[in-house]
Each structure stands twice: as C-alpha cells, then as structure tokens.
C-alpha cells in the first residue's frame, strides 16, 4: 500500500525532527504501544497490541529514524513488526521536512506499508480505513508537535 501525504506544522524543522526522536511523542501518537525501549540514539524496540477486525494481535519489532539532520535533507523512518501466525507490518517512509518560515514547517511523507499474514488480508480488505487511520496518526503527530512548540 502506497503512503503519500503532506501537511504544514506550526513549528520549526528542528522541533519536528526532535519530536520524531522523542519516545514520549511516539507513545502519544501510538497508544497501542505496550512496550518501548531505546536501543540506540535513533532506534527503539517496541511492542503494540492491535486488532485485525475482532482479533487482537501483539506485534513486536523496531522503530528507526535515520538520515542526516542537515538543512533540507530527508529523514527515513522504518517500523518493522512481527507477530503470531505470520502477522507482520513494515512501514517505510521518506520524510521531507522543509522550513517555510521560523514557525512553519512543511512535512511531506512518501513510502509504503506492507502487511503479511492475517494483517495482510485485513489491510487489503480495509485499505481505505488503514490509510485514514495512518493519516489520523500523522495529523495527531502534527498537533502534538504544535502544542509542544
């Protein structure tokens, strides 16, 4: 499933990048997280409790944010999760974070979501709902960053 979108965030580029690296911010926009442990400066092990329809599934894996912090350079976000019976989710995003003014950042994302096992079937059947849920999470992220700015 292709993921694309953009939004303006009323915060500086540095504030947006710090938020993407902040464990508390990540927990705020992913309330399904049940465990979240730093494994490096830009890497975390995590576990989520999600539902595929009525079926609860616990997934565990890794969240990584990589890329140069220099002005205008894109960042790369990867979220890889695995669960029982082949359930898996992999999200890869390239994030363009461009400073428009001292207090406005344009945030562009493009990438893909690949789901396997029971989650693959659910994601395929519910593509519009999954895309809408992901966009709501990014909107939540933008609001959280703006509140913290």
Describe it for me?
The chain has 149 residues and is α+β, with helices and mostly antiparallel strands. It has a single domain, classed as Alpha-D-Glucose-1,6-Bisphosphate, Chain A, domain 4 (2-Layer Sandwich). The chain has 4 helices and 7 strands, in the order βααββββββαα. The chain has helices at 13-20, 23-29, 117-125, 127-148; strands spanning 2-9, 33-40, 43-52, 55-66, 75-82, 88-101, 104-116. Strands 1-7-6-5-4-3-2 form a 7-stranded antiparallel beta sheet. Strand 2 (33-40) and strand 3 form a beta hairpin. Helix 2 crosses helix 4 (127-148). The longest helix has 22 residues, at 127-148. The radius of gyration is 15 Å and the shape is globular. The termini are far apart. 19% of the residues are buried.
Keywords:
149 residues, 7-stranded antiparallel beta sheet, 7 strands, Alpha-D-Glucose-1,6-Bisphosphate, Chain A, domain 4, single chain
Topology of helices and strands:
Layout: E1 2-9, H1 13-20, H2 23-29, E2 33-40, E3 43-52, E4 55-66, E5 75-82, E6 88-101, E7 104-116, H3 117-125, H4 127-148
Helix pairs in contact: 2-4
